[in-house]
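User: quick one, fold this
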Amino acid sequence: MSSTAVASGKIEYSNSVEYSDSENRNALIAVKAHLIGGLLVFLLMMLAGLTMRAVQGTWLEIGADLFYQIMTVHGVGVVGAAGIASTGVLWYFLRQYVRLSNSIFWINFIIFLTGVVMILGSIFLGGYGGAWTFLYPLPAKSMGVWSTGAAAVFQLGLLVIGTGFLILYLDMGRGILARYGSLSRALGLTQLFGKEAVDYTHPATVVAGTMVMIVNFLGIAAGAVVLVMGLINLYTPEFQPDALLMKNLIYFFGHVFINATIYASVTAVYELLPRYTGRPWKTNKVFYAAWFAIVFMVMAVYPHHLMMDFPMPQWALIVGQVLSFGSGIPVLVVTGYGALMIVYRSGIQWSTTTKLLFLSMFGWAAGVIPAILDAMITVNRVFHNTLWVPGHFHFYLLLGLLPMIFGFTYHLIGEGRQGDQLKATDNLGFYAYLIGALMTSMVFLASGANGIPRRWATHMTEWVTFAQVGTVAAALVVLGALIFTLRALISLPRAADPR
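Assistant:
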């Protein structure tokens, strides 16, 4: 169960899975397709976000129906792009240790694109604007704004995408079981509980990949159940499922899926920082214990989204609050601290790749703080339906998740071969993105602290200044992301595998 050996800044995978040259070429093309697809969707969704902020800031005028359509596509598009791009990162590294199928990886990508077309059609042709959460019974009660068919196609699109991911996770599970014999062994639990000697070279990627596969399989399965019930309700109104059950299933599915994307993408940190520092990332009992705790935490903290739903069982709200308080600890202990130690006095060269990967550790660690505050019942009662919540998850995604994906993309590009002009452009992109992402998140948090509600197309006069500052911040984010994405589009297709 060995991981990677680091010598002279180059990673050598010991006991790695052997593939043919054609398999490796096909796999690299598939990973590039996932990254390019994900980055293009991210860029489009950032433009959608910029548009919404400009509307709220009175710098742009559109109809309320179109605003909520854009809001819907922005939410579902960001989640989808995070899912497909982070899967590309995880799959690239996980296949070094377990045998994975190129065909199934491609099948998931094609199914994903099919679902995207369905969702876009339901929104911009069918007029669906009920947000990505599709909360029951809103899809069936649009007051004539969209048709039953549009709501059905939206939910079918999500169901199609989820089916593709379930197929992919089944293949990941098959590969992990074939290599390690059990999920507990892959997670390092046999070492944690003393059944096996501690192997400091057990791949961190395998631990993370196993965790993601477990929680996302369960999360997507829950999402499939609620989507099917919603579809039945659309065409058989007599079927009226319990609204609180539906909301629990939706938020369990959504919270698990979007959180799993960052746990999948962190494999880039585990695999690439050793390459750039010349130091191996060693796993140990603390590492295994933290990831074992994350398996349960990521599935159990979602009730902090339902604290204002008074019929919720009190024990569920207590569990959600307590686990939300502790959810940041494993991240800080095993990944944030580990990244600091591996970089400290390593002589690392600060390229765009390494700056992005290190930035992601800050974004992940600091982004959990607003979430912990929002999980406090007394704070939640005031903040949860305000822009504080978008502030939290924009912090997580813009400064945590996306730098991991951008950093991995730059690694594949091989930026060490670029000229001074490209380096200057990349620096412009990095600092525009960093400043814009920090400003965007902080403006959202400040807006929430001032009681500005979320999901409102029109802002009151006293809120407009916040939205205008947020628009400038969003423009900087778009500039940085545009530079990163253009570099990917130009350089990634012809890039060789740097391993």
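User: anything notable?
Assistant: The chain has one domain: 4-494.
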